[in-house]
């Protein structure tokens, strides 16, 4: 990601060379100063809002820091405590893993399915695309999470609906068994962003391949498996990595639906929620920083593993010709 | 060619300067000063309901009238959110000048140097008219860091009309826990489980505290250790658990949503006919919101000891880093001692702490606050002195008590295992 952003403004020097005065014969990329000027808002943001705080939190993760008094250096104590002396930490890891493993595939399947349907729609496709994309824009907001909480609450719409057909669940939000599913559903409902990317990917698949497969007498399933999936695999991979990272970092839904407590009975105690609780409710900012870094390392490791496996199943068209 | 490179470097320099300037502006904006022309603006944050906010705004308006040079900006949120926000603000160096403080957090903040001392120095506030019993609740190591604006006490409230209808025996001054159980069971049975007798009380540390005190124990010892053992927690949870099994108290999916707000109180939703609470919960519009009148009485007891105490419910503190401690002290003084402010605030924070204000306010009350006032006057003589502020981590212990109790009511762990888990969590919380 960082790489891409850096390259784009560097290319902006190109037209200047073409139209510009012949005396200044800057070669491509030889005027870094100008690039930095255009980059400066981003660089300022990255330094002040991302890299600076990250380094600070790395330092704090080795300290005992209660937010008010000077941090005390404790070495690796926080990290040691995470794994040896904190049952709630392990509980939060369990909840988060469950969430990632359930919500990511469901969301991608929903996104792909709807994208394939929309790919066939010719009339009003813009409208449908916007309609399905809307939840992605709204979904991150606390307001939607509140609505979600009400819908799945005791005597909410879902509970009343199910009761009408004789299924009494007593509301999902207040049940340790179903509460996590409410948040999963909230995540899946926001399938719009990966859907749009899938849709773009589908449009890129050459029609000849479909024509060829239909001439060969392939059925829908065979075409899907042998043409659509392989051709789409780079996009699937991209969405998978992105959505998985999002899922690991998920916070708002759990925070709002559980009223900030991760309940009932810690069944929605997301990693980030526990981190937040430690940092801001229980005055353990150093410990919370250690948690944040542990999460970063885990996400990095899982992403690396995904990239490792990608060679086996991600197919880049044109690779053969290189 | 060497010269050619210079413009590039100059532009780079320019870029860096531009960024620097930008940051400097941002930093300057963050500073936000006041104090021009002798006018100061102080911030006052508190937790509470919209009703309390209305009363508070009235009192603040009176203060601003009386002190033309001081402007007060106030904001409020719910209890949990308030303390999360406060911690962040304090860490970021933007704590409000005047802040509402809770008994269970006084030590946490005072020990860490966040609060200004109120019995000497710039932020001194006079304490005449306040009882020593109450002031001890805001003192840490015999220095005053928080002044109680109101006192409240634990109370049992119930829907007397409903109890009568189902034939439940009304509470008396000498009623026992088993009497409550029988009455609650009657409500549940009499309404066919439409209305449960009582909110499940097992997960609330404050009610556990009363029960402990009835047996001569306490929540925290003088030196800040736990004043009870696993056996006490087990006994308490066994009690409430058996009531839940029989239906006398609310079932798990209702109980887990109790969070101290009126909206989520099962009594408000007519799913329960009674609850333990604090008398400050009897806010002026309560009966309209709940759609029925509630009657206040004291806790049941098996030992003859009441266990209830005069609690400095809400206290006011001044931030150590406030630039306007004098103005802040004026506001605190006004809110606590001024009779017009007292009238405006009414019972919105509980029974006024200042005796002069208390008498005045008591005479004007109506509805729920009047019932709370009369209740408090009735039990005042039997109340114990408030224990000293609990140790650091007490707020976390309180939350853990309810959370671990969730395991019990959802049948995810036995009472014994949960008690063990809670004690180890509690010890961890107050030792670190």
From TrEMBL, chain A:
Keyword Glycoprotein among UniProt keywords: no
Matching InterPro entries: ABC_transporter_permease (IPR051393), MetI-like (IPR000515), MetI-like_sf (IPR035906)
Coiled coil ranges: none
Membrane topology, as annotated: Multi-pass membrane protein
Keyword NAD: no
Keyword vocabulary terms for this entry: Cell membrane, Membrane, Transmembrane, Transmembrane helix, Transport
Primary residence: membrane
Compartment(s): Cell membrane
Region named Disordered: 1-24
Transmembrane segments: 33-60, 97-118, 130-151, 178-202, 223-242, 285-307
Record-annotated ABC transmembrane type-1 domain positions: 93-308
Family: Belongs to the binding-protein-dependent transport system permease family.
Name the record gives this protein: Carbohydrate ABC transporter permease
UniProt source species: Actinoplanes sichuanensis
Automatic annotation (TrEMBL), chain B:
Pfam families in UniProt: SBP_bac_1 (PF01547)
Keyword set includes Chloroplast: no
PROSITE patterns: PROKAR_LIPOPROTEIN (PS51257)
Keywords assigned by UniProt, alphabetized: Signal
Signal peptide: 1-24
Keyword RNA-binding (UniProt): no
Domain of life from the UniProt record: Bacteria
Name of the molecule in the record: ABC transporter substrate-binding protein
